[in-house]
Amino acid sequence: MCCEQSMKRLGNGYREFPGNHATFPEIIGVSDSISRVRKTVERIGPTDLNVIIYGENGTGKDLVAEALHWNSGRSAKPFVKINPLMIPYDSCCNGELEDDVDADKCEAGDNLRQVFNSACGGTLFIDRIQEIPPGGQVTLLRFFRNFEGQSGGGNNEAYESPRFLVSSTRDLTGLIMEGTFRADLFHRLNEISIHLPPLKDRKEDIMPLCDHFLRLYARRYKKKIPAVDGQTFELFYQYQWPGNVRELSNIIHRLVVLGNEEQIQQELRESITQSLKTTFHDEEAVSGDTGTLPRDLEETWPGKQRGVHEEATVCEGLKDISQRVVEKVEMEAIMRVLEYTRWHRKKAARLLGVNYRTLLNKIRKYGLGENLEA
């Protein structure tokens, strides 16, 4: 059954992917948390289990939903994504789940029937389900109840219900406790859940993600894969990534298209500095700091024993600390790249944006390898 009318009513909240997708979406990363996500997708993809996918914005909830679909027996059928704000409040139910209301006779029920039909036998993905207002939740729940087991839209054809996947940036059990999400709707959908970690908690995945996005955008624009400066990777590992993988993708996109690496570095430095200032002031407010060094730190502060003026001593101490932090981050970045390339040092040098000799010197400096050839 054609759902053009439904598509017009739902506008940008409706997205349909045809079956027989050519490629399986890659869930990229080497961290334990992402490895667990991949294994879960492989295990439950072929089933009909309804899934709630939790994660912050930009962590890849859409990608996991698509992977579940393409890894199932429904992959030849449509994958339909809808925006929850497009699920209408139905005036005929007055926001209550009443037994004597027929979903098929309500306008909202008619809209949802068309959407369900478009996903017949496939997968229906409701993004950001926590944003559905109470009236929309009732509409959706009543439609689930009344529609199951019925014909799919005329001509006495058997209706094959879609599989339901939903995503949320918030814990739905907490919303149930707050009274903003229906427990009965939650239990209908929550057969199993997948939790996606934020990028700041899996920084070992930054390198493979960068490699993926560099190749992706270079291929899209028919450009040579750019060499990324080692300082950029150091900043990547220091940055907290509030926008998660989507933000990293956007930065690499800019880098490939515009080549403005110095500007990107400056923006990252400013963001990192601002984040550190915010953290420092928050901790200061909590601890009631008076602005003086603790006695144990004062006694061991670099340069204190040399009788230098206090202001100069603090500056010198900060320089020492900054240098140690930079070296630590640099060493970790080099080690991650070496592990990612399986110690292919020439490839690692290209990815880090340094020459081969410089990388060998850094490896020796930090004691990361033994008996390296000159």
How would you describe the overall organization of this protein?
With 374 residues, the chain is an alpha/beta fold. The chain has two domains: 4-197, 3-Layer(aba) Sandwich (Rossmann fold), CATH 3.40.50.300; 201-365, Helicase, Ruva Protein, domain 3, CATH 1.10.8. Helix content is 51%, strand content 7%. A six-stranded mixed sheet has the order 1-3-4-5-2-6, with helices on both faces.
Question: Which tags fit this structure?
Answer:
disordered N terminus, 6 strands, Rossmann fold, alpha/beta, elongated, Helicase, Ruva Protein, domain 3, 374 residues, 2 domains, six-stranded mixed β-sheet
Mind sketching the topology for me?
Elements: H1 4-10, E1 14-17, H2 32-44, E2 51-54, H3 61-70, E3 79-82, H4 107-118, E4 123-126, H5 134-147, E5 163-168, H6 172-178, H7 183-189, E6 192-195, H8 206-220, H9 230-238, H10 244-258, H11 261-287, H12 295-300, H13 310-340, H14 345-352, H15 356-365
Parallel strand pairs: 2-5, 2-6, 3-4, 4-5
Antiparallel strand pairs: 1-3
Helix pairs in contact: 1-4, 4-5, 8-10, 9-11, 9-13, 13-14, 14-15
